[in-house]
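User: Let's play a game. I give you a shape written as tokens, and you guess the letters that built it. Ready? Here's round one.
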């Protein structure tokens, strides 16, 4: 039976002064494609779905932040609980005098420590697109909503400038999964003078992304919305009133965006059977618009006060089950109060989650602030994607793709076009090379990119289109036909 042969090519654009470090970890890069975060094309599971399961690294005060010995203890504690992802959540604009001070004295050491433990980091600027009333959870409704078109306010201006600095610093670091640009924007205010708008919130995100893309072409953006990043408000900010080309597309030309949501017990219920609609709405978005989602914050904290721990524990289990997409996930869990049988059928799958948060000074503090470890550590061990490994043999043997032993070889694979110059395609039948008649390269939507002129039994592609322009990173289709009319197709992946 004929089989398709998927070929993976890579173009490594490596700055000379960073070549050794980047080459070593090139297989670690994550990227967005369709409705999932995916692994590097250079790892042992090329382009496989990657699911992050983690906890937030948080400080409740500036005194915590200045104690780097404490930070290392917290890193060790989080890593010891089996996560593959951490959200570094900081009030960077108010706790540090400059972006350089924040990066050099806090952020870079944390990323390095987590990198050494092979844990990805999401960098979170923990703000509401307005000032705080308290250190963590309450926005100052008497402060103006940020406006990048009139960024005279110190925090808004620093937010833009700091993100450019951070992105420029980490642009070549694959262990940084990406940037959560703003924790939970809050448009509403009792005083109309200080209220924002949907359009203003969206424009703030767009301008921040535009500036970052001038220095960083690769990292993923994690983006919320102006209603505390609730799941049911994603539609209002990234779908309603937008043209087809604008919907869920705040990163045009790159498409590296994950739409985030934050939920707590009873703030928005999950399953329809319990009176909720979060599950159904997320399923509609993921399956209609084919974009990735992630719950970057949930936990035990009170939003509706007075709820018993039993209800909060049920919520945490159902959130994790929903994100993973497996009904009855908790069936075999060693929990006395396991959420089984499921009260609903998850409408999404493999969207990732991050527990809020490990904070405080001791292991007991970390455990208490991230309640409940018996829930999320069990799930992280089963759901989290393993660390990607590099391809053991970058030039695998040809693969038989028909009963005639028709084979297609591509080499070098992976390929650095800047060094090799060309990617070569060959076809053979029963071990005999065939004269090639026609070789075409197409985009995934079927548009012709390049018609190659074979030379005997080989055809070379230099990664350009028919106009001589370098093609962007992505997956392309090829069609190879020999002079006897035998035709085979496959995929080419270019990584930059």
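Assistant: Ready! My guess for every position:
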């Amino acid at each position: 039976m004929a089989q398709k042969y998927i070929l993976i090519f890579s173009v490594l654009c490596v700055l000379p002064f960073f070549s050794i470090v980047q080459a070593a970890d090139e297989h670690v890069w994550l990227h967005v494609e369709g409705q999932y975060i995916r692994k590097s094309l250079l790892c042992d599971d090329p382009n496989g779905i990657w699911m992050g399961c983690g906890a937030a690294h948080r400080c409740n005060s500036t005194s915590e932040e200045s104690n780097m010995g404490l930070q290392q203890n917290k890193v060790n504690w989080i890593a010891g609980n089996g996560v593959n992802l951490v959200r570094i959540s900081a009030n960077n604009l108010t706790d540090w005098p400059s972006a350089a001070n924040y990066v050099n004295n806090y952020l870079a050491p944390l990323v390095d420590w987590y990198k050494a433990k092979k844990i990805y980091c999401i960098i979170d600027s923990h703000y509401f697109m307005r000032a705080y009333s308290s250190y963590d959870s309450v926005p100052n409704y008497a402060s103006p909503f940020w406006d990048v078109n009139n960024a005279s306010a110190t925090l808004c201006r620093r937010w833009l400038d700091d993100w450019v600095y951070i992105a420029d610093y980490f642009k070549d670091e694959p262990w940084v999964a990406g940037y959560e640009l703003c924790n939970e924007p809050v448009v509403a205010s009792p005083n109309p003078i200080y209220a924002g708008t949907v359009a203003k919130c969206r424009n703030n995100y767009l301008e921040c992304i535009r500036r970052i893309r001038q220095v960083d072409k690769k990292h993923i953006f994690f983006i919320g919305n102006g209603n505390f990043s609730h799941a049911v408000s994603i539609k209002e900010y990234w779908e309603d009133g937008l043209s087809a080309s604008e919907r869920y597309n705040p990163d045009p030309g790159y498409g590296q965006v994950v739409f985030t949501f934050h939920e707590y017990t009873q703030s928005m219920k999950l399953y329809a059977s319990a009176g909720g609609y979060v599950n159904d709405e997320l399923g509609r978005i993921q399956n209609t618009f084919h974009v990735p989602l992630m719950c970057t914050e949930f936990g035990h904290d009170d939003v509706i006060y007075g709820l018993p721990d039993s209800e909060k524990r049920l919520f945490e289990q159902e959130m994790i089950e929903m994100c993973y997409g497996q009904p009855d996930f908790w069936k075999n869990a060693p929990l006395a109060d396991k959420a089984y049988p499921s009260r609903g059928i998850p409408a999404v799958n493999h969207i990732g989650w991050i527990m809020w948060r490990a904070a405080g000074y001791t292991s007991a503090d970390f455990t208490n602030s991230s309640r409940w470890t018996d829930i999320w550590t069990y799930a992280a061990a089963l759901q989290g994607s393993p660390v990607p490994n590099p391809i053991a043999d970058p030039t695998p043997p040809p693969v038989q793709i028909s009963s005639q032993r028709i084979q297609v070889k591509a080499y070098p694979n992976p390929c650095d076009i800047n060094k090799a110059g060309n990617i070569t395609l060959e076809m053979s039948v029963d071990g005999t090379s065939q004269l090639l008649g026609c070789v075409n390269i197409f985009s995934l939507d079927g548009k012709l990119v390049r018609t190659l002129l074979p030379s005997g039994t080989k055809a070379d592609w230099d990664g350009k289109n028919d106009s001589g322009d370098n093609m962007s990173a992505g997956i392309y289709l090829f069609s190879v036909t020999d002079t006897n009319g035998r035709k085979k197709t496959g995929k080419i992946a270019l990584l930059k």
